[in-house]
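Batch 3, record 17
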Amino acid sequence: MVDLVRSPRMAGALVRKARLAQDLTQKELAARMNVRQATISKLESGEPATRMAVLFDALAALGLELAVTARDGKSGFQDMF
Amino acid sequence: MVDLVRSPRMAGALVRKARLAQDLTQKELAARMNVRQATISKLESGEPATRMAVLFDALAALGLELAVTARDGKSGFQDMF
DNA sequence: TGCTTTGATACGCGATTGCGTATTAACTTG
DNA sequence: CAAGTTAATACGCAATCGCGTATCAAAGCA
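Prediction for the assembled complex:
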């Protein structure tokens, strides 16, 4: 299951999905990142003005990371093999 | 060549690399995204407080997108095959 | 040697962030 | 049912965004 992330909304949805999959509350995730629960709430809601750092911190706290791919798949992951 | 993006700095470096690979100036990329050249400059410098939307817009303007992967590679792209 | 292009940086501005703290609605559960 | 949990939302605050506009050094080129 590869999740594409093309927008703040998709990023928020993904963070929420990953958080729930790991049985974490917003408060617990927030604690790991040293941010407030309210910040997680906004991040998950897809707030476009959320700071980039918050997203990366959340992904790191969830054991995830992002990889860049070309939109048409013409390059990028090809090079893995 | 798989580019991992784990931080604002990596994101900035990647945007710059992709932009230059496409022979674009900061001004041209900025025009495509309807932001100022100065905003691109800050994005590429790795400013952590840059808005998420700016990053996604830049990637879209460059024909790129992000895919989520687990940090240990235990899941995610495995599912592609 | 100029002239242009590129990218970093600045000022004032309005908007919005995340913070600390707190409240509240919707659930869950004993 | 009462108590607790979870997540959305709010207020005042300091900080910083991106905007419009602009400047300037470095580099490229005529």
